[in-house]
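COURSE: Structural Biology Practicum
ASSIGNMENT: Worksheet 4, Part C
STUDENT ID: 0417
INSTRUCTIONS: Below are two proteins. For each, the amino acid sequence is given first, followed by its structure token string. Answer the questions at the end about the second protein only.

PROTEIN I
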Amino acid sequence: MHQNQTLLGMAGRIAQLGGWTVDLPDMHLVWSDEMCAIHDLPAGSVPGLEQVFGFYAPQSQAAARQVFEDCAQHGTPFDLELEVLTAKGRHIWVRGIGEAQRDAVGHITRVQGACQDITARKQTEDKLIYERDLLWMLLDSSPDHIYFKDTESRFIKCSTAQARQFGVESSDALVGKTDFDIFSEEHARPAFEDEQEIIRTGQPMVNKVERETWQDGRPDSWALTTKMPLRSKDGTIIGTFGITKDISSIKQTENELAYQRDLLATLMDNLPDSLFFKDLQSRLVQLSRSEAESLFQVSLSRHRAAFPGTALPPYLQSVEVFRQYAIGKSDADFYGAEEAAEFAKSEQEVLRTGQPMIEKSEIVGVHPDGHADWHLSTKCAWRDQDGRIIGTFGTSKNISKLKQAEKTIEEVHKKLVDASRLAGMAEIATNVLHNVGNILNSVNVSVGMLSAQLRASKLKGLARAVGLMDEHADDLGEFLVHDARGKLLPLYLRELAQTLAAEQAAMAEELGQLGKSVDHIKEVVATQQSHAGAPSVVESVRWSELVDDALRMNVGALERHKVQIVKDFDHLPMLLLDRHRLLQILVNLIGNSKQALVGMDLAQPTITLGARLVVNEQGQLLRITVADNGEGIAPENLTRIFAHGFTTRKTGHGFGLHSCVLAAQEMGGSLAAYSPGAGQGAIFTLDIPVATPEGAAQ
């Protein structure tokens, strides 16, 4: 028994396990030496029961008392872990177990038990719980995808973000699955091979950019992945673990930046205009190939002029080398300080104000032969993402050829002005001839009528009557009274007087019309002579008289071709009009319509003249229409009919309608043509702004 007690004591010391008993009902406590050691008491010490309860931390005392009382009174065994403050003030954890001992009749006579120091285990458990909580916090909160896999690349555990990305309710749903269950073969196969290689070699895979393709057809994603070997406590590889960061947005941004970079590079390498970026000191930060070529030529010329016959320095061996050399240089390094001063001045002004300099013509160099290089430059403020000005950027186009072309154009323009003046004189002369020709038709008619009237005049009868009277001068009275012929002579003379009076009136009227035609010829000539800007002569005009004058000037041709004239207009008041310009237009339009009727097989060739006062947004207009049922106008000619020199007639010259539209424009009006098509007649519409004289009858 002594040997067994010795071994039991050794085991107790090793396990830090002590025993105790409390005899009832006197509450006599017996402690083992291990109990004393646990509570930092000297060996052999036997504290009182209250002192024992006093060792428990305040938060544990009530529980310790309760379980002991339950065991002593009711025989309820207990097993619990409580905090203890030892006699030396150490904070420890103990596990206490106890049970009741009964006598032969079943009365509880003793409570006995054991107490073990579990501080080390408790600390280990707390550490494990803390580390577990950290791991769970990491797995639950990290936006990155964290995962652990076994040697078959099956998921053991993963983060919430990983589960969310895979579209499952919780990370537990992924346990036992592989990438082949989630991704397409295109991504799952290389991912599996990477993990197997890590398991085989123990070497990690760090920051690999992967393109993820999915079984469910969602858009591809991009990930930055690091995978490591998962080892047991003894170092054996039991799987892999890894962290994958979704970099799809970063990849998209990189692609967009690369696209923008490619666009800029394409622009910088291929734009024929010069493009440059400069810092706050006007030093080049970036420049296009065309700008590099321009500066290269400038530098090459200056070097050869300064060092004739010498070898070129390395930076002048090629444009590409020079382009790199130019970075960090200013215009003064290429053009010289004096010539570059103006460039720097404009750039500093842009930096100071933030306002751009738009398309300024600048001389950027003068060649030995004296001709200058002209550039059209634009410079703007270069700002960072916060809006701060960090430099300037701009473009420059070589416009030397354009400047030379402008000079040539100016010289050609002077020649064209002279030629146009001569052409204008020719056009005026042509218009004069055409319009005067139309009026001369009326003159010819008037002259013809006068000639016919003179040839048919009764003046010959007067001469015969006078001769008869001369024959009977001696017996004139006897002759008039008794001779049969003499008796008729007074009656004949009376009738002859009336006839001659009528002839005189008709000839006077025709001479008046002839005078009007001659006056109109004078006005046409005067108008055409002052064609370029002469003011209109506006006077009160009666519309019906103006129409009659225009018809009279075309009367011969109208009667010859049996053209019916229809006047379809309301009674109009006196109007303020340029009589002669308007008469010129009417004569031309009526003549044009008459020509459109010639050669047409019509039952009744007709020209309809219309006039109305209309009001639009410009004010009051006189709208005149001249319509015919003649040959019409082909659709393709409607836009050309008023062009100078355009005509569809073999004997036409194309001046009449052109002069009409010019005259209409000079009066502030417009002239338009419409035709349903060939053989369906045409309508010409003339709109002229008008006013009525104050007090004119409506």
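PROTEIN II
(use this one for the questions)
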Amino acid sequence: MTEHPPRPDSARFAERDQKAEIVDRLYEVALDPIRLEDLLEVWEERVTALRVGALDNAVPLDDPEIDAHVNRARVFLDRYEATRAEGGYRVMLDDIPRSAAFVSDGGPRVTACNRAAARAFGLAEGGPVAALPFDPEDVETLRGVIRKVASGRAEKVATLRIRSGVTGSPVILRVSALDEPGLALVLSTELFWPDDFSHTVQEAFGLTVAEVEIVRGITLGLPLKEIAEQRGRSIETVRTQARSILAKTETHSQSELVRVVLGLMDVALLPAVAPNMRGNAGAMEPLPFSSFRGPGGRSLDYIEFGDPKGTPLLYMHLDYGLIRWPAAAERQARSQGLRVVVLVRAGYGRSALLAKGVDHVQGCAEDYAALLDHLGIERAAVICLGADLRFALALSNLRPGLVSGILGCAAQLPLRTAAQYERMDKWQRFILANARYAPKVLPFLVQAGFSLARKLGKEKFFAQVNGGSPADMETFADPEVRAAVLEGSEICLGARTSAHEAFTRECISSERDWSGLIHAVKVPVRLLQGDQDPQTPVLTIRELMVDYPELTIEFLPRTGQLLFFKEWRQVLERVQALLPR
């Protein structure tokens, strides 16, 4: 009997010149993401030979030398992102909403500060550093530390403990170097309590005005004795009120209370309206974000549109975060009596990432179930895009009876062979094939893609990635579709948002075998597929259809990945049969 050599657990590049060429391209992309397509061409030329046969026997690329260069290149890419024109320390300060923070070169003037520093310390951009509420000697010490850190003559991070001249309490200051030469960020433990936040706390927990003032004092770090003195009450009275506060907020200690309040403050201080979702040529109506506590206490956002009292319809937004519909489609949802609910998935927008090690599909399904529970929805149909089909299936299997039916648009199914990757257009193959064969390299590729999208602008980037589908390009040219795609995707890639880590996790989970979810489904599942889909061509769908008799599949002509956005009228017509009765 002939013995076959064992299948290797991983593949590596055999030739030194192959590695050298790829390494050169990696660093070129890290220094300028516009070179990403050059990396794509070289990478695909070198790795195609490693992708052969059935995926059950796929050998992942695991080359320690390439991995080491990828990790170094990511450092350069991170620096590129930090210094891009629309980034820098001003955006960084805006992203620190509740702790007083400012940027300084150690001179007599403040370079920039956030709102919290203006309120807590009385600082102003270009104003005197001497305005800090510390002893003059302490201010001079701080300035000296800033100069040393900013110039590289000290450790990149230094910590000082200074007593506030206003409250008498100690303030911890963390001084860290910025990428901008000669500047340092000063982040303090001094918190900012917004003027209107007391009302928010009172409404959220049903507290009295007196109890809110005690919560404010505890959050700002004051001991109960000092709170009692400020309020002219006995310490016993304040302790009794503190116990009442813990009961009402369902917390068990002052430290847990502070964590809950600060979490609420993070939500309250961020914009209440989805970014850039204002009236424009696409006639998009502004939609407010709402938040709730999901599994593990994680903060998750969601939006709703349509008829608030209508039939529940859960919409899943694809890995590009397409949370908005064309304006006419959103109006039609209202007129058809549909209550459309959209969860901002883990890692997108302000929704917290799932903990590392958590199964991504299962974790997202639990988040969707938690949202429907939060809204009191006992049964809903689902519209999902692309590989989001796996989340809809997992939700249906997780909570029998919660999902009445699933309608997938331009759905992606678990692939079986390397040839099915080769049929994809080059950009789709570049990301998804590497999610399957080179998951260690994928984070760099995705982050570089996001950087490229920022540099080109999302419209040009869309044209570059989806140019192989005339149907998608024609659909994107529609002003209402373009507005929905560009504005909805702000949760994925916006002026202050980059969901590249979540996008990476989604791609890796989509390329694992989730066929068991399809075979286990107990509700009707209908798929609408495009004949010009650059990611899942017709031939691939036809090959896979035979494996899944559970699915009803219909092809719509002259459609691609944006099938839902072009044919939303047909989608809303087909979903009627799947709605809960």
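ANSWER KEY EXCERPT:
Q1: DSSP finds 25 helices and 15 strands in the chain.
Q2: The first strand starts at residue 99 and ends at 104.
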